[in-house]
Amino acid sequence: MKRCFGVMAMAVVLSAALAVPAYAGTWKYVNDQWKYQRGANKFAYNEWIQDKGKYYYLDNDGYVTTGWQQIEGQWYHMDSTGAMETGWFKDSDSGKWYYLYPSGVMAVNTVIDGRTIGTDGVWVPEEGAVEPSDSADLSTQQLVQNMEGISTKGYSILTSARTGGGERWDNAVRLKGKGSHVICNTNGEYRLLYGSFGPSSSQFDSGLMARVTVYGDNDQVLYTSSDIHHNEKVTYFGVDVSGQNQIRVEVSLSKDNGYDDPVILFNGLALYK
Description:
By secondary structure, this protein is mainly β. It contains one helix and 22 strands.
């Protein structure tokens, strides 16, 4: 997939977008680019900055990035001011459509709004298909753990947990054991289920391989993951749940050692309208 990085907008445009300091720092215009200063001669770099509800990523030199960016193995797209984009996005250079999850991560190998997205993140339109114009509201999430009437097996909430890939999550959803699941009634009101998952660093034996499957009405398979190993990196996933009255997120085993129960951790498992 061709990646073209956009150029920065005019300084006057960025001044309007970044005028208010984020937290304890201040935006500074240096060498015709924006940087984020935390103190005297101390600038942020290789990190995300949140400002006025938007997210910006600073590169190795501390400058705000634009266009396509690969960060920790995931693709993101920033607009001309450097703000992270979400939802459907049409690349002005290639003319191809992509879908960016609420976290900004580019979707791959899934179906969003009834549209199939390939391994390279590009929407593969069928003959006569209409280009995206309406999408889920990614600004308002309903965490599955906060929904009423959910039913569960092997399910709990952990205040802090670490994945096999080394990420630490607060308030993680934990599913333990083969067949563990969470079921919630969506009543056809939601369009997208989104979250990320990975194996627990402490409770996932190296001899196991697991999968995460999302079922809709009448046990219809809406999504199934690749095999999850004990040291697997975090997987970001999105599932089109339009029209579904009930969904079930379940853990299964593709390789069972006969005695250990795998633990899969979920972060930000939420529904969007």
